[in-house]
Amino acid sequence: MYLGTSPSYPSIVEALDGHDIGLMCQPGTNHPRSGWIWAADNGCFSDKWDEWRWFSWLLDRSARSGCLFATVPDVVGDHAATMARWDRYAFQVRELHYPLAFVAQDGATVGSVPWHELDTLFVGGTDGFKLGSVAKELMREAKDRGKWVHIGRINSQRRYLAFAALGADSCDGTYLSFGPDTNLPNLLGWLRHHKTQLTMFEDRA
Stretch 128-150: mean pLDDT, rounded? Predict the structure, then answer.
């Protein structure tokens, strides 16, 4: 499932209505409609992040049905700082009945992730971390534990197919924000290509 942005374009709204794609939301942007598949990002990549604005936004969500997960606040590129925020905020998100997403950042290891508390492993971090061997180990562990796996910042077919082949369940990106009339058909082509690959694999099994 690709979680896009820019839900104001009619063609993207149609794709969201048909569950061809989902929507990545965050405080102040991209409000989901009833019936859409969506996820709640925390906006922590911005240096203007405000915890009360974030929490009030989660508290005010009336259409929680269709929400894949809510990301607990993290710190870009810093696993230790992300763990500190997890310890502070995870219970608050759980109390609001959202599925919890833990964002794996640089420095995370299989042994340092709170597997028993999270519902979704969100692979974030720098490109070096995301494309490295540790991220792949984390993905395998998450799948072995029956967890949902999400990949952040996917804006090319090559990366989309590469992570899909590793078992990712969803990803997000800003690809649809730029030239949606061209990029939405391209993206839907990625999805069809992946589904075709899965069908061929299942037929051979």
Answer: 97
- The mean per-residue pLDDT over the stretch 73-90 comes to 97
Please count the other Cβ atoms lying within 10 Å of the Cβ belonging to residue 115.
16
Of the options 3.30.1240, 1.20.1260, 3.20.20, 1.10.287, the CATH number for the domain spanning 2-204 = 3.20.20
Burial 73-91 (b: 16+ CB within 10 A, else e): bbbbebbeebbebbeebbe
DSSP letters for 90-105: HHHHHHTTPPEEEEE-
Q: Please give the sequence-ordered ranges of beta strands (E in DSSP) within the chain, or none if there are none.
A: 2-4, 22-25, 38-40, 67-71, 100-104, 120-123, 148-151, 170-172
**186 contacts 197 by C-beta, under 8 angstroms:** no
Query: Domains of the chain: which residue ranges?
Result: 2-204
pLDDT digits 0-9 by tens, 32-45: 888 999 999 999 98
State the Cα–Cα distance between residues 137 and 173, nearest whole angstrom: 22
CB 21 within 8 A of CB 186: no
Q: Exposed (0-12), middle (13-18) or buried (19+): which is 1, by Cβ within 10 Å?
A: middle
User: What is the DSSP secondary structure assignment for residue 110, as one 8-state letter?
Assistant: G
In contact, 70 and 101? CB cutoff 8 Å: yes
Per the CB < 8 A criterion, the answer to whether 32 and 23 are in contact is yes
Greatest alpha-carbon span in the chain: 52
Query: For residue 54, what is the DSSP state?
Result: H
